[in-house]
Write a structure and sequence with these properties.
The chain is α/β, with parallel strands linked by helices and 295 residues long. The protein has a six-stranded parallel β-sheet. The longest helix is centred in the middle third of the chain and has 31 residues. It is elongated, with a radius of gyration of 23 Å. The relative contact order is 0.16.
Length: 295
């Protein structure tokens, strides 16, 4: 559990929530409008139907606040906390129409973000006991429009964020190396272009390229899709030839392989699967008490 969940930008959330509500609600929820009398009120709970790690409560609260500021929303569970089946996350009271109008969007976001936090926690736990344990980080393989939220969920789950986009770090991948004419030339060009405060990272796929990366003076050397034995040799060479370089492992990392990768001595393990193919956590909303009709 995180003591203080990393903050989300309120304006960022508000803009996107408005757009997502327009997509889902349009001019109004015709099903609920067709059956509910004016002023109908209910109470509801949002609860877990699957064990996991909770992420996204501030987003769900913001959804209901955008739908209807008069809704009473009470947080019951803790962001980043462990969830058991049946645990209540939120309690709501107010307009039934408002609750049902925000239900799907709030649940979609809670389920997606909690799934990411749950997966991240599993990876973080899997490398505990390795000394020192490598950082588990995400990638740019995120859902368009949800990157900030998905990276937030990774942090809630105990992981760390890689670069946010193409603008905030240099990461020379295989296609960049090909286009530049090799590892040494790619790093040299990046170093000449990027500000001196920005680290330069290079992706390598062989021990030959590892030696070139060491010679290039890259700040971070990413070992891509290497077998653990080869990766261990690469780490040893980097520690000898470029002791200040950060070593990252990447490519097809799974829960079944992450421990062996961690034991090679890398500093960072990037896992695209935290965001690109994670399974949503099962979370539901139930109305459970009708409060009657306002006069």
């Amino acid at each position: 559990m995180v003591d203080t969940a990393p903050a989300l930008d309120a304006e960022y959330m508000r803009e996107r929530i408005k757009a997502w509500l327009r997509e889902d609600l349009g001019p109004g929820d015709v099903t609920s409008l067709s059956i509910l009398p004016d002023g109908h009120r209910s109470r509801a709970v949002v609860h877990a139907k699957q064990a996991g790690v909770l992420a996204g409560l501030p987003v769900a609260e913001a959804v209901f606040a955008e739908v209807d500021p008069a809704l009473e929303v009470r947080r019951v569970a803790a962001e980043g906390g462990a969830l058991a089946v049946g645990d209540v996350l939120l309690e709501l009271e107010g307009s039934t129409l408002s609750i049902l109008s925000g239900e799907r969007l709030a649940l979609n976001l809670l389920q997606r973000l909690s799934g990411i936090a749950t997966a991240t926690r599993a990876y973080v736990d899997a490398v505990q006991g390795v000394t020192p344990p490598p950082r588990i980080v995400d990638t740019r393989k995120t859902t368009p429009g949800l990157r900030a939220l998905e990276k937030y969920a990774v942090r809630v789950g105990g992981g760390h964020n890689h670069r946010f986009g193409l603008f905030d770090a240099v990461l020379l991948k295989d296609n960049h190396v090909k286009a530049a004419g090799g590892v040494l030339e790619a790093v040299a060009r990046a170093r000449a272009y990027a500000p001196h405060t920005m680290r330069v990272e290079i992706e390598v796929e062989s021990l030959e390229q590892v030696e070139q990366a060491i010679e290039s003076g890259a700040d971070i050397i990413m070992l891509d899709n290497m077998a653990p034995a080869t990766m261990r040799t690469a780490v040893e060479r980097i520690r000898q030839g470029a002791p200040r370089a950060i070593v990252e492992a990447s490519g097809g990392v799974t829960l079944a392989t992450v421990r062996a990768i961690a034991e090679t001595g890398v500093d960072v393990i990037s896992v695209g699967g935290l965001t690109h193919s994670v399974k949503a956590l099962d979370i539901s909303l139930d109305l459970f008490e009708k409060k009657g009709v306002r006069a």
